């Protein structure tokens, strides 16, 4: 029997959307289902670094670090609106790792591979401007090295958008509730969580990219045995008002052997994270604990001149890392690399499950998934994503300011901050979003902080936004600026738009 789809991808996080995009670009027919919002789980709760992971060198994860380091510039080139380089300052702490060890680690980090554009490591003085600002006086020496930043949730949405533009079907708020092998194909039941309706589809191959739910999905929904195990490790971040004026990030060594980042965030804030806590419980209700807030405040206060206290915290977010369980004693030591497990294939329809993985390595992971599935899928081409821009990312990595200037030239009614925000989120697609607007009134109702109706409608129609939370915390970060009343107005507006569309379709 011919299946409805060549490939069904379960999970709309970074791994699922990355795999769906790559597969549809190779000519497969693809359906992706996500039970919540795109990036609604772990993929919007990361530290948002495209990094090799300096710390992983201590666990001899050279392969992972090399693979990840190479991806930094690949992803920056593919999406220069949502990804950009960052310089990190690593202060030397006299009671922790010796300076020679830090220098050695950074030497490897610089030379393991893939660094063409990013500047190399250098030693810096911390007792003079600009870095003395914000730091305690007792830190005199440190090292400055490069990594990149990415808006994780937007990276997910742009992968989904590109997949859809190439022909994939993307269904959000749709849960895969059962999948059975039946006459040489997968027979799958999907539940539309908005309407409660079930829909049956068939697929030749399933990719299980359900993140923290991967094992539950495999045994409970697909009914297969899994040899690999998952280790759930919660990580949380706090956001506080901005602590230093320069644009560098700090990487602080902590007494327990962990590191904590303090990163300039959304202009007015500093993002501090993360924690590593083994997680058990309800994956739908993941939140920061008081102990984690205290831990992050103490870790940052060890270095920052003005102590960080729980009362400073304006927002928090938490996520659960779906790590491959390599039997490590400590959560912080569990491998961050991924394992791909294939069930079936030759004699029965295949299901491939993704255990672990990082935002940074999602593109390579997708390539390896599809390499494993190549015998079972009708691909018309091979690897292609390394040089293909994501939507809105078709400009040079050093041309962001030019893009903002060009947008302002085409739309003179935009202020600098508004044009910068739109270019950061949508890149060259900001023009498509603004369309024929000739003044602010053409953008419709304003919900606060330059969030206008036209942008919200774009997010509903082009980016699967269905609630105010989707818009305020994942498609944008305006949740940090809008108050509860404005968010409620936005929710009501979105509900009205969706009801209108359903009415028109009926
Ligand atoms: C605190 C923290 C910090 C991190 N920092 C970084 C970092 O700086 N850099 C980096 O590279 N990585 C980082 N990571 C790792 C990275 O965020 C994760 O590895 C990655 O997001 C996992 O993506 P995923 O697609 O596998 O899972 P998820 O994003 O969780 O996606 C899985 C999706 O599957 C859906 N799903 C589950 N079951 C079903 C079903 N039955 N039907 C339909 N849908 C279903 C879920 O709703 C979910 O959206 C961090 C992780 C954490 C927690």
Summarize this structure briefly:
This protein has helices spanning 14-25, 62-78, 99-111, 152-165, 214-222, 290-301, 362-373, 400-410, 416-426, 430-434, 453-463, 468-475, 484-505; strands spanning 5-10, 30-33, 49-50, 83-91, 122-125, 141-150, 169-171, 174-182, 185-192, 198-208, 230-241, 249-253, 259-265, 269-273, 277-278, 315-324, 339-343, 351-355. The chain has 506 residues and is an alpha+beta fold.
What does this structure look like?
By secondary structure, the protein is of the alpha+beta class. It has three domains: 165 residues, FAD/NAD(P)-binding domain; 167 residues, D-Amino Acid Oxidase, Chain A, domain 2 (2-Layer Sandwich), CATH 3.30.9.10; 106 residues, Helicase, Ruva Protein, domain 3 (Orthogonal Bundle). The protein contains 13 helices and 18 strands. The strands form two sheets. Strands 3, 4, 5, 6, 11, 12, 13, 14, 15 and 16 form a ten-stranded mixed beta sheet that branches. Strands 1, 2, 7, 8, 9, 10, 17 and 18 form an eight-stranded mixed beta sheet that branches. A hairpin with a 3-residue loop joins β13 and β14. α1 crosses α7 and α8 packs across α9. The longest helix has 22 residues. The two termini are 32 Å apart. The mean pLDDT is 94. The protein binds flavin-adenine dinucleotide. The site of flavin-adenine dinucleotide (FAD) has 40 residues, from α1, β8, α5 and β16.
